[in-house]
């Protein structure tokens, strides 16, 4: 996306227990997990693939660019062979091979998101579904964290309103290592790749310290914060400020 510096492949994981269960619950609402062949694009160490296979009987597969995560996934004795190395910008997969493709907090870390989305479009069958979870710029905290420009000094994710600073201005004093999308920006990218958007939703955070830099006061008040987040997530007008946005899109027939 224009305005950002060069983005390199990187990323953490959302496979913490509460987050994983919550996101799979969202996915199960838009497709029958027992009847689809699913590709987890940027699957990390494979936790979503393993859970989908074990609990839902999904024909789930995963590709991951970071080799250390692929190695970690392959240590799973039952399902490790369903994970392999792959580059989202050049998938080693046949045309129309999958019913569902999942990009779970991945697109913002891909050097060329347009190429990646067009490759995903290619490997989905006509009528297949693309499910994206990606950062929501309406959320007033930059959960990936940013550094002061030209330094390794990372600002705390608890510093508010960093996402509200236009990237064209922010890049003069900040270094970004992942993108953050306004909902209209992400929708535009998805449509440009040839998809038709079916659903837009918002996900509130689970406070599981996914960033690894969570302030102590948040850790101490986690149960209360989850209750508040669940209320906001279900409230029109407030739900749009969730930490992530979810798009479900179709490859046209």
Describe the structure in your own words.
The protein is an alpha/beta fold. It has one domain: Rossmann fold (3-Layer(aba) Sandwich). Helices cover 28% and strands 21% of the residues. The chain contains eight helices and nine strands. The chain has helices at residues 17-28, 47-56, 67-73, 113-123, 167-170, 183-192, 216-220, 222-233, and strands at 37-41, 59-64, 83-85, 98-104, 124-135, 146-148, 174-176, 196-203, 244-250. Strand 2, helix 3 and strand 3 (83-85) form a beta-alpha-beta unit.
Give the helices and strands, then pairings:
Blueprint: H1 17-28, E1 37-41, H2 47-56, E2 59-64, H3 67-73, E3 83-85, E4 98-104, H4 113-123, E5 124-135, E6 146-148, H5 167-170, E7 174-176, H6 183-192, E8 196-203, H7 216-220, H8 222-233, E9 244-250
Parallel strand pairs: 1-2, 1-4, 2-3, 4-5
Antiparallel strand pairs: 5-9, 6-7, 8-9
Oligomer: single chain
Number of DSSP helical runs: 8
The number of strands is 9
Instruction: Return the CATH class.
Output: Alpha Beta
Compute the separation of the termini in Å.
28 Å
Kindly report the CATH topology: Rossmann fold
The domain tally reads 1
Tell me, what's the shape?
A: globular
Named CATH architecture: 3-Layer(aba) Sandwich
Which labels suit this protein?
9 strands, Rossmann fold, 8 helices, 28% helix, 7-stranded mixed β-sheet, 253 residues, alpha/beta
Summarize the entry for a quick read.
28% of the residues lie in helices and 21% in strands. The chain has 253 residues and is of the alpha/beta class.
